[in-house]
Amino acid sequence: MTTRTKLLDSISVPIVVLNSDLCVALANEDALTSFPTLETGMELERLGNWNSDFIAVLKGALSDQEAASLTLVTDDTFQREFLVSVKTLTAPDQASDTTLALTFIDQTPLRVAKSMRSDFVANVSHEIRSPLTAISGFVETLQGEAQNDPEARALFLDLMGKEVVRMTNLVSDLLSLSKVEAKESRAPKNRLNLNQTILQAVESATSLARKRGKNLECQIEPSLPTALGKRDHLARALINLLENAINYSREDGTVTVTAQVAPADNPLKRDAVMIAVRDQGEGIPAREIPRLTERFYRVDKSRSRNVGGTGLGLAIVKHILVRHRGILTIESTLGEGSTFTAYLPVAAPQHKN
Fold first, then answer.
1. The domain made up of 3-106 is a member of CATH 3.30.450.20
2. What is the pLDDT of residues 308-323, one digit of tens each?
3. I need a labelling partner for 115 at 20 to 30 A (CA). Which of 88, 200, 335, 344 fits?
4. Which residues touch 110 (CB under 8 Å, ≥6 apart)?
5. What would the 3-class secondary structure string for the chain be?
């Protein structure tokens, strides 16, 4: 590794250096993480998600030998927005060979924050209104004749307690979701043992499976490849999938967890691990599947609330996987059950300096 490359890698924003043919001459570690398909030596025009207007600005900077600044919107696993600063570099002894240095400032968190703020008010006001209305009704009843009836008083206090738990779970899930969304443009860089992470999630879900009378089976390939990620976040995503499967499987049903190296034609189109959670539930209508990861979307609202669902579990899973540059696929057959599969990219081998 050259001193120049080490210097670029020490800078915590994506930097790409292009030669006069708009081929990648250098790219620091942050750039390679932010743009997984970027490779040294490749023509920038081969990156299909970088629009022609962006390429035109770069060509103009080369011909005019002037700095430029523009906004780039990419659409990989999710849409990201960058403020790109373009500088021309010309060596004193090679005036005809101009290169471009591109610095990318990720504006996605700001854009996401604005969108989240407006969505938050609309969604949360609707979801909290229901339990608050119920609690208000119970209080009014207890202030009337029910206050002198021990059985009625115990019943309404129990119902109020359940509504409070529901609101607490809702707030907890909202906070979890907002934290993940705010960071999803920055991929984690910690190397992660997936076998340990999966077993952690399975152990956490075991007590719920026993309580619901469901069986939990595991088929985990030993020594799975290493991934890059946050262990607690990925464990949370898997726990959400397991709890969902347990809650919606039929009585005495079996929830099966399988984990293995994904085939070459997997949705990520790169080396990956697939973790599948299969239930034996009623299945999900095909028309509902595309909306399952939307916030507060429920196929069966009454059943979701009966099992303590907030309508945010799968949204949290989706955004955790997006942050890890992974993806969630859902397959379902009515009357047989559903399979939720998380695909995670395998970490590149560690190189010794």
1. yes
2. 567 788 988 998 999 8
3. 344
4. none
5. CCHHHHHHHCCCCCEEEECCCCEEEEECHHHHHHCCCCCCCCEHHHCCCCCHHHHHHHHHHHHHCCCEEEEEEEECCCEEEEEEEEEEEECCCCCCCEEEEEEEEECHHHHHHHHHHHHHHHHHHHHHHHHHHHHHHHHHHHCCHHHHCHHHHHHHHHHHHHHHHHHHHHHHHHHHHHHHHHHCCCCCCCEECHHHHHHHHHHHHHHHHHHHCCEEEEEECCCCCCEECCHHHHHHHHHHHHHHHHHHECCCCEEEEEEEECCCCCCCCCCEEEEEEECCECCCCHHHHHHCCCCCCCCCHHHHHHCCCCCCHHHHHHHHHHHCCCEEEEEEECCCEEEEEEEEEECCCCCCC
Q: Average model confidence (pLDDT) for the chain?
A: 83
Average pLDDT over residues 231-244: 91
Tokens representing residue 197 in the block: 């992470």
Q: How many CA atoms lie within 13 A of 280 on its CB side?
A: 12
Give me 193's structure tokens: 């043992």
Closest CA to 81 of 99, 56, 102, 107: 107
Residue 241 and residue 292: Cα distance in Å, rounded?
Answer: 12
277-315: string of b/e by CB count within 10 Å (b at 16+)? bbbbbbbbeeeeeeebbebbbbeeeeebbeeebbbbbbb
Using CA atoms, how far apart are residues 44 and 18, in angstroms rounded to an integer? 8
- Among 89-103, 213-227, 235-249, 254-268, where is mean pLDDT lowest? 89-103
Where are the domain boundaries for CATH 3.30.565.10 in the chain? 188-353
Q: Where in the chain is the domain with CATH 1.10.287.130?
A: 108-186
Of 169, 238, 242, the residue nearest 209 (C-alpha): 242
CATH code of the domain made up of 188-353: 3.30.565.10
Tell me if the domain spanning 108-186 has CATH number 1.20.1250.20: no
Instruction: Inform me whether the pLDDT recorded for 59 exceeds 80.
Output: yes
